[in-house]
What we know:
Elements: E1 9-10, E2 19-29, E3 35-45, E4 56-59, E5 64-70, E6 73-74, E7 80-82, E8 86-89, E9 95-104, E10 114-118, E11 121-125, E12 145-154, E13 160-163, E14 166-173, E15 177-188, E16 195-198, E17 201-208, E18 214-221, H1 230-247, E19 255-261, E20 268-269, E21 274-278, H2 291-306, E22 315-316, H3 322-340, H4 343-362, E23 374-375, H5 384-401, H6 403-417, E24 421-422, H7 424-435, H8 444-447, E25 453-461, E26 466-474, E27 489-496, E28 502-503, E29 506-507, E30 519-523, E31 527-533, E32 540-543, E33 552-555, H9 559-568, H10 572-592, H11 600-611, H12 617-623, H13 629-634, H14 641-658, H15 660-669, H16 680-697, H17 702-714, H18 718-731, H19 734-747, H20 751-762, H21 769-777, H22 787-800, H23 802-805, H24 811-823, H25 828-834, H26 836-839, H27 846-861, H28 867-876, H29 882-885
Parallel strand pairs: 2-12, 18-19, 19-21, 22-24, 25-33
Antiparallel strand pairs: 1-23, 2-3, 3-9, 4-8, 5-6, 5-9, 7-8, 10-11, 11-16, 12-15, 13-16, 14-15, 17-18, 20-21, 25-26, 26-31, 27-28, 27-30, 27-32, 29-31
Bound molecules: (3S)-3,7-diaminoheptanoic acid (B3K) and zinc ion (ZN).
(3S)-3,7-diaminoheptanoic acid binds at residues 127-128, 266, 268-270, 303-304, 307, 326, 379, 382.
Amino acid sequence: MYRDRPHPVRLADYRPPEFLIERVDLTFELDEQVTTVHALLEFSRNPAATRGDGSLTLDGEQLELIELKLAGQTLTPAEYQLEAEALRIHRVPDRFQLETQVRIHPNRNTALEGLYQSGPMLCTQCEAEGFRKITFFLDRPDVLSRFRTTLIADQDRFPVLLANGNLVSETRLPAGRHQVIWDDPFPKPCYLFALIGGDLSVVEDQFRTCSGRDIGLRIFVEPHNLDRCGHAMQALKKAMRWDEERFGREYDLDLYMIVAVSHFNMGAMENKGLNVFNDKFVLASPDTATDEDFQGIESVIAHEYFHNWTGNRITCRDWFQLSLKEGFTVYRDQEFSAEVGSRDVQRIADARFLRNHQFPEDAGPMAHPVRPDSYIEINNFYTPTVYNKGAELVRMQACLLGPELFRRATDRYFERHDGQAVTTDDFVRCIEEVSGRDLAQFRRWYAQAGTPYLDIEADHDATRHLYRLRIRQWTPPTPGQPVKEPLHLPFALGLLDDQGRECPVRLEGDVQDQPAGTRVLELRELETEICVLGLRTRPVPSMLRGFSAPVKLRYAFTNADLIHLMRYDRDGFCRWDAAQRLQERLLLRLTQDPTTLIPDDVVAAFRDALRDPATDPALIAELLTFPSESYLADQLDVVDVDGIHRAHRQLASHLGTHLNDDLMAAYAHNQDPAPTEVTPRAIGRRRLKNRALALLMAVDGAKVFNLCQTQFETADNMTDTLAALRLLVDHGGAAGDAPLQRFYERWSQVPLVIDKWFSVQASSCREGTVERVRGLMAHPDFSLRNPNRVRSLIGALCHANSVQFHAADGSGYRLLSDVVLELDPLNPQIAARLLKPILSWRRYDAGRQAQMRRELARVLETGELSADVYEVASKALDTVPEQAESS
Ligand code: B3K
Ligand code: ZN
């Protein structure tokens, strides 16, 4: 907790560590109330660092020091200094052994960082800086050590004791205790350390690697969850095979373990050989998990597995380089999902996520580059920018090189940097060397925050058969970066003729004939002119195919252009983008003026999409899904919360009315013959069916209402049950109350389903939701100590329910700040994350602005805020002077 203003850490101040720790030998005597940690550390001076004053400073927080020995000699109080967050030893030799013993209290650890208790088990979370809450250490990612871990605990309460690496021995001890020793042969930074103690059941399987080694795969869960691990295990095996084939990466240890815990701040953690997971991303059966949950599990399991190479074998030099591992690993998991599912649908999901979450971050007070240059609390920088924009930077480089060269570049990266802690620059250098390209300008993407705009104009010269595109790029200023430089980006272009056929993109100076289809051009200048030859008629441009760069493209498409692209474009992203643009245009007009006419040809285009037998149902569902209310809000100078919501309903009800027969047909046709199957095809059909139902439900009518109720009552998979429940609840009143009650009774023993019960209510647009959420906070099943619960109730209201959260009376803001103030002393990471939706208060009308500011100020005035909450709240109110200097 901070009392004085916390100081920012700056990239420019990076220095190599003065000491390295070659070996770490840890012994834990585990107990929920008091755990003792004994550490034996082998230090040596780092030859690559400049010599300091001969002292050593270790990180350590909330540790009770009970023993401190250097080279076997207990240090006297005069020889060291213990501070709140550090242990300073005044004089140390060049090589020495340090021995410490500390006490910690897992049951009091509500921040879920370090060693903590989750239900009956003990577990750890060390990234980014949690290891310092376990023992005194050089808690930084560029100190790589070999770890040996001895765990001692009561045999009955903690029969399973796990740590990183290979099992060395298991021994029974007197007094009902036992001891288990683990050894990890791979040097690693301490943020990858993990241990687990608990009474867990295990699902076992095997994987034979490409070189013929057999790897034991184990998923540990609480005994009653044993039958819900099958999907996670399949996903793990798929990911292991895929990484061998696509990136040539083989697994290295003999054992790969995953443990599911129910109290976890994020999705999962890639600790070496011992991944710890939020149980939401492990446990699934068709009756309890939605399709989205199944897909989430597959991609998070893959993501953590891929970290074994991108993160663990090669790690980050410092936390400013976080995107080195996160951006690359997200790219890898996106590619995996694209290849095991549908590439188009995956790319649309990537683009939607970026537009809904990363673009607003880039336009708000917390905007930061993919490689930030300063932070107050690193936990605030596990962001869509570092993760998802970071993945886009990797993707753009892959696009510039093409698949073969890119594979050679990643091979070189893995070979050169294995076992090292490196920077994003080291990654780009491998790409440059292999391709012979100069990526100096491209590197700006890592350092420059903000989403670039591409403003495009086109004209066609019918006599000279010339088509000209003029592209101007610019990036709005962000905090600390008033002036932006032009970026280097791939611009994938296709041109469609009036029959919807692809034209060749033939440019002046081409020596070879161009085939019809996509051509990847490169933009570098502020203004670029592209002159395409040989076009008799004016084509319709299909731009940024595959979302080739994370930018905002502005071009005066006509409705007819967009309908043409929606109908004919072969590029799934551009087809979807055309549908989004049509909807966005209509929705924004309806927001301003509810009497706006909805053109028949637009409705007809959606009808055609619904009827198209050649299109994947999942893609049709995407075409019929409107841009979110929060995305539309971002397009307005002053957000009109209620107008946008009304427009959404109006367009849904218009389509529901005018496409009634086709929607009914799609609903009936996609009633799944295999309702518990989770193949991409079955998932796509359920998505389309439930989107059709939602549009139909936007029109009042007994027939469809009964359909929805029947679906709720008879569905045997959670996707259909939940889709129907949401609609019934949104409908309001008793229509939703009885199903909610039934749902609760049916699932009261399954916490992950009860999370859904909370979130359906909190994300409902029905009146009085804020009050209802306040009421639910007093429900016996609600607890601020479980992050999944907090996200499912408070997160759902504040992050996924614009119209109710931004209620004009300010009640949503008040609820949020009340929760943040209560949660901050318990779990600062989650508290800081919750604040996100009010950080962009400047974008709202004067009344809401004042209310949001008041709540932010109320939070900030509190005496003992965490650094996490202090950083976001103060940056939102612009009270951090350092920010301006940090460009
Ligand atoms: N590396 C972890 C995230 C740790 C977050 C710490 N606040 C999970 C992941 O990205 O795979
Ligand atoms: Zn990750």
